[in-house]
Batch of 3 targets.
Target 1
Amino acid sequence: MTCTENVEFTEILPEDIDELIRYYEQYLNGGDFIGTSIRKAAKENRYYGIKALINNETAGYFSFQKGIVLTYPYPKYEEELRIASKDSVIDTVDALMVIPRFRRKGLASELAKRARKELIKRGVTQYMVEIWMYPDGSIPAKKIYESMGRVLYSKAVPDFYKYAHEYGLVCPVCGKICKCGALLEIIDVN
Ligand SMILES: [Zn+2]
């Protein structure tokens, strides 16, 4: 870390879930569907990750769900990803988030390093990530995810969120009808 502030990393605990959902809704996807599915995953012990604290305040987090989980059910791509991941132990990125006022301090790369170690510790060999592609085609988070391992599968789906509103999802960029796309990737962390 290049910053001088007091940074601490902890495991995400069940009592963190409400706060994480609030950030998720604020910066990623809005809508009750997200909160409900994260709470369900946490309750079933399928949710884990690393949280960064700066001066005891949540500055960011990197979380995962066990297995292959897309933002909303999309059987066609779930099947493709399952085939591509073969018999590996694979988990999915739920969110990598740095609260705006804590950005530009290298926190995301530090979270990525620690998240990779956590995956290895858990015996996870690959992870899947649905990387946000903005309507202008930019994919800001691509580099950081790909820094965690070897890309085994990569598929850009420009209209990935076209059915998201049917699940009540709201995009912070587009609003109700989301024109963003997703880059689906499987990364080998070994
Ligand atoms: Zn959008």
Target 2
Amino acid sequence: MSEQTVIHQPDYDVIVIGGGMVGAATALGMAKAGLRVMLVEKLAPSLVWSESMPYQVRVSALTRASENILRNLGAWEGIQARRAHPFVAMHIWESLGGEETHLSAQEVGAPNLGFVVENSVIQAALWEKCQQHKQIEIILEDNLVSLTLTEKNTENSENCQNSQSCISVLPEVHLEKRGILSARLIVGADGAFSQVRHMANIGLDSHDYGQCAVVGCVKTEKSHEDTCWQRYTPDGPFAFLAMDQNVSSIAWYLPLEKMQWALNLDDADFARAVTEASGERLGQVIEVAERGAFTLVRRHAQQYVKPGLALVGDAAHTIHPQAGQGVNLGLLDASALIEVVTQAHEKSKPIGHYAVLRKYERWRKGDNVVVQRSMEFFDGLFRQQPGVQTQLRQAAMPILNRLKPMKHWLIEEALYGREPIPKYAKVNH
Ligand SMILES: Cc1cc2nc3c(=O)[nH]c(=O)nc-3n(C[C@H](O)[C@H](O)[C@H](O)COP(=O)(O)OP(=O)(O)OC[C@H]3O[C@@H](n4cnc5c(N)ncnc54)[C@H](O)[C@@H]3O)c2cc1C
């Protein structure tokens, strides 16, 4: 069979496996570029909403870049119509003493430093838009049985004169109920335990932090003042993320062996333990809601792409969540992938071609590594027992407080992401 032969037309341009926040954003962006998309999600998300619904266990602190992406995708209105809470400052301090650091939106002339939003709210707003888009077909509650990829090496893009000359076999997914479906590009957005990554034989570098994060919402005696509060202790950080009036979501990092202890505490003891972990910064914890715990593992896929396949979000990487960057990085992945695929599509180039997808990988992998490693650096620095590291970090805080340009640069990097920023992450794409 010659290289020019096309075996059959694909059923879709793009098949996205996994309709979490990152997968739904990817599907929407691809459809907005005029591509025919199939979105496969094994668990139907709940789109039912009422203001009286209790706060969900999982929340995300969204950066300005993520807000822009969600606005440009048309999902921000749906988020604001449900609930999203802006925070205007971050306050960081250490249980062992020393100078405290305060980062505020005012310092950089911004209205806020981001929004704290429940994950289910972000997903529901994106799903609403996916359901309305005529280019998107949704398949719910089906299981991925296998994946077949183009193995032919067509790395040299010079050989690709038109969209057909580079394709010898189309990638296919085999779903338990729907059967075999083909696409020009398959996107694995199926989370940290990605089946797509596994089926594509993509290796994983991982590191167990030996830590867990206990999360959930609590009501405190004092107001959070629209601020996210982070206290470093020898066990790990403790954070309050501002939600509603006197309601904050907590992220309490503990050694793994304390996970069951924290989950098994009754509400009164849990409230007391959280009050203590927070150094009583917001006074007593007076009410606690449902809680959950996650073990923390750094994962990084050895490749983000193969011919006909790309991984995005947690399927490609998971990081220590202390700076709340996971879904923010995932949304940047989605935006970068949408951009390189859209460019190829507009030039009638094959969107699943390795050279096209490698642009995405080169763009995002380095950035994700930098963020992963800086989170580890901070975690290591702050988890040390009293000693040289304590003196180092106690010296670092005042320097950061006084070096205004460095402080402003840090705030802006955290808000907008690192250059080059995908178009979707900019205002009014
Ligand atoms: C304690 C904690 C706190 C965090 N806080 C923050 C924060 O403040 N800010 C932030 O940016 N990030 C945060 N993160 C990280 C963030 O939650 C993740 O990065 C984010 O959820 C990843 O989104 P995703 O869409 O890539 O994956 P997921 O949210 O895991 O979604 C994957 C989707 O794929 C579906 N799926 C799985 N397998 C299949 C299959 N075979 N077929 C079809 N569908 C499938 C799943 O049902 C799911 O809907 C935190 C993480 C933790 C653990």
Target 3
Amino acid sequence: MVAIAMPSPSGCQHCGIDEREHMGRWKPPVGWHKWTAPTQDQIKTRMRARRAVRITP
Ligand SMILES: [Zn+2]
């Protein structure tokens, strides 16, 4: 099984890292940014992606 780095559903809108371990991150194209709440669409998409990974053998 291949380990895929799945962003947490509540992870940053820009990079997917959880708020408590975020601090400051540099990530293109946003550059240096603080944790930003993901949009409802992002949360749904991430949850769906997680479920798809769990089902796939
Ligand atoms: Zn971020």
